[in-house]
What we know:
With 456 residues, this protein is α+β, with helices and mostly antiparallel strands. The chain has 13 helices and 15 strands. The strands form three sheets. Strands 9-8-5-6-7-10-14-12 form an eight-stranded antiparallel sheet, sandwiched between helices. Strand 6 and strand 7 form a beta hairpin.
Amino acid sequence: MTRYIYQVEKESDHLSSRMPDLNNAQEVEAWKNLIPSNIEVCGIYCESDSGLEDAERLGVALGLHPMIHDGINEARRNKYLMNKMVNEAGMDTVKQKSCKTLNEAETFANNLGMGIKSNGPSPKVVVKPLRGVASDDVFLCSDIPALQAAFKKIYHSPIFGSSTSSKHDEVLVQEFASGTEYAIDVVCRDGERKVTALWKYDKRPVNDAPFVYFSTQLIPAVADDGGTKGKEIEQAVCEYVFGALDALGIMFGLHHVEVIVDKIDKKIRVRLVEVNCRQHNTDFRPLTNAAIGYNALDILLESYLGERSLEQSPDEVNEQQTQRRHRLRWDSVPQLPKTLAHSAIVHFVSFVEGTISKVDIDVLNQMEELESVVDMEVYPQFMKVGNPIQKTVDIRTDTGWAHLLNDDEAKFKEDYVRLIGLMEKIMEAICNDAKRVELDAFFNMKGIDRRRNNMT
């Protein structure tokens, strides 16, 4: 709702209306005095990208930095500065340039080899906003005309999550890193790291979009015996992520980090996509509880509220566990997780656009009856004939989801393939030229997230 009000209705006063001016000491002090004296603030948790800047400012205003808060650092929100800081820490990153003009973007792409005749394939570049979410306005460009179109689409577009009506006056152009993408959920306490989930993305080029989410599969970071044999890639990913968090000065909180992994001549190369200083933007808790035995949100609470003493007797520990069964002890959680079953979150991709003419209930029944499917949902607006639908181009434009869980690897893979095949048949739609214009106007409104937009 906040994003809709800001980007569609062009209202911005509400975003920081409860925050003091950090440059005005008297205003900050008066604002802090409104907090009841018997309340102790133990930490700050930011749920989404749009709140990152305000969460940083709030921590400073409350005086939590540096004891239990990381302070303000634009590099944790700006993707160019983020990669720059990680690179300056000696870590491998993609080549990049923050471009103020189209000419700068074209020159950077030319320097990478784009548009230059050669015997090999032309290099590709990724064009994206300096700040964004969910692959929104992220383009994979294989030639200069595509780069020009992407630059024009992003330049002077609204900055996602900004507390003012500011727009992008620079566009990020990066070398395209091929490989497999991984996401790592990490909880930090005083610089100590706990990987709470390791995800492997299945992204595919469909619907004229380069990076459409089909699934995020939960994988173990260590072997069943707790060792590292056969888990060299997973170990390299986690080690890289810890280094990136160090480079950005991140000591506290829950973070969702994405990297690209390529293996050339047996050498594992890990490079940063981005560090997100918030949770994985999906309902991961039921799946990680079942597949790992705990979840990032519970561990985040323990990092702020849990006992920090290592001198408790077993009787004291047992008493605490009896009184707080919903709580974990920080020291009982391993640094790297292993999984108890095979699991994934599948994102339902729409391959049709126009007006929904049919919802195939038989197909939905077949999907629900798959042994590995433990939960699923098609968003309500896509269950009604006559409602508009658009082809899926990013995670915010999917049409639903399913949780898969099975301790039988072969059956899990079989059901996964079957589910992906069935989801293409869920809906049918009709579209003429006049309706296409109407749909384009509707879905091109910034701020529309179809998962939360109950169209009637």
